[in-house]
Amino acid sequence: MIEELSEWFIPDKILFRENQKEVVERVFKNFKNGEDADNLFVSGYSGVGKTLLMNIIIQDKSLHKYINAKDYNTTRRLFSALQNSKKQMTCDIVQEFIESMKNNPKILVIDEVGEIKDIEELGKQLDNIYRKLQTPIILITNKLNFLNQFPESTRKTIFFTPLNFQAYTQEQLSLILLDRLNLIHQKYNGRYGNIPENARDFICHIAEESYGSSVRVVFDVARKCIQNKCYSGNFIKAIANQIENEEAITYVNKLSKMDRLFLTDFFEIAKKKMPLSTSDILENMKDISVSRVAQLLTVFVKDYGLLTEKYQNLGRARGRFRVFNFRNEKFACQVYEALHPEIVSNTQDSLDIIINQDREGKIKEGEIKNV
Fold it and tell me: How does 162-189 read in b/e, with b if 16+ C-beta sit within 10 Å?
C-alpha cells in the first residue's frame, strides 16, 4: 500500500485550501482562548479536501469531539457512539452528552453528517445542545442543501457560517498529485512512484472532466498505475471506469426506497427524451405526489449531484420553467446499471488484457480529447 496516496494519509500541508484552513483554525483558536467562535457548515463535493483539512486541524484531541456519521445513520446511534451511552432514548443520551460536555467543553465536529436519516431530529438535538452549552458545532457534508432540512428554529439558533470547498482545477489536481509523488520519491530514494508527466496530466484531466475534480479519484488511479507499472491512456480510463462503477453501486445503496422509486421512473422517462421539463416528469410519474417530486428533483440536483437544472424562458405567453439533465451521462448510465443488477457490465473484465498490452504504453495524441 502506498500510504501517501491513501485517503487516511495526513500530510504536513494541504494545497489550495489556505482560506478554508484559516477559517477553521480561527474557530479552534477562539474557542481555546475563551472567545466567541463561529459554528461552521463545511460543504463541497466528494474528494475536494474537506475531511483531510479537518483531520490536519483536529489532531489536538483536547479541543474537540469528532465523529464520522457514515456508520451511524440516526441521531440516536450518533450520540450513543459519541457518548458511549447505554441509554435507549435519544433525549436521554443527548442529555447525558450535555452533562459530560459541561464539565469538559469541546467543539463538536460531525463529518459526513448527510448520512443521518432523521435530519429534523438531529436539528432539534443540536439546537438543544447549543442552547445549553454555547460550544461551537462544525458539520461537514457533500450535500450542499443539507441545512435547509433543519427546522427553521435550529438554523436561527445555531446560525452556521457556510464554508464551501470549490472543485479543484486540473492544474491544481496535477500539483497536488506531484506533491504526493515527491513524498514517495523521498521515502524510497527515487526508486518508486514515477509517473510520466503526460500520464499525470491525463489522470487529472479525467478527474476534472468526469469525476467532479475528486482528488480521491486522482490518487486511486495513480496508485493503480504505480502498482501495475502501466501508464497508458487505455489503462487509466479502465481504472477510472472501475472506480466509477464502484461509486455508482455505493451511490445506489445509500438511496432510500422513495429515492430509488423516483430514480427508476426518471430513467424510464429519460429513455424517451432528454432534457426533461418539470411537466414532462410530472405527466409520467404517477406514483409520487407532485410536492414530493419537486422535492426529490431538488435533492438529486443539490444533494446527490446526479442532475443539473437550468431555467428556460419562453416569453410572456408560455412562461419560465425548469429543465433537467444528467450532470454526467456516463455516471448516470452506471447508476442505471447499479439500479438494475441484472444488467452485466463487462468494463472491468478487460483490465488484465489492457495491462498486458499497454504496460509500456504511452498516452496517445488526441486521447485526452476523447475521454
Answer: ebebebbebebbbebbeebbebbeeeee
User: Which residue is associated with the grid cell 491525463?
Assistant: 202
What would the pLDDT profile of 291-330 be if each residue is shown by its tens digit?
Answer: 999 999 988 988 788 999 988 776 565 567 789 999 888 8
Amino acid at 230: C
Integer angstrom CA distances of residue 317 from 136, 309, 323, 345: 51, 22, 18, 47
In the chain, the largest separation of any two C-alpha atoms, in whole Å, equals 71
Q: Which residue has the cell 495491462?
A: 355
As a whole number of angstroms, the distance between CA 185 and CA 85 comes to: 46
At 84, which helix (H) or strand (E)?
Answer: none
The alpha helices in the chain, defined as continuous H runs, are: 18-32, 50-57, 75-83, 90-103, 119-133, 152-158, 170-187, 197-210, 215-228, 233-253, 257-270, 278-284, 290-298, 315-318, 329-339, 351-358
Q: The pTM is what?
A: 0.80
Give the count of beta carbons closer than 10 Å to the beta carbon of residue 149. 18
The Cα–Cα gap between 175 and 264 comes to: 40
- Can you tell me whether residue 232 is helix, strand or coil? coil
Please list the residues that pair with 108 across neighbouring strands: 65, 137
Three-class SS of 26-81: HHHHHHHCCCCCCCEEEECCCCCCHHHHHHHHCCCHHHEEEEEHHHCCCHHHHHHH
Looking up cell 450518533 gives 78
Which grid cell is 271? 429513455
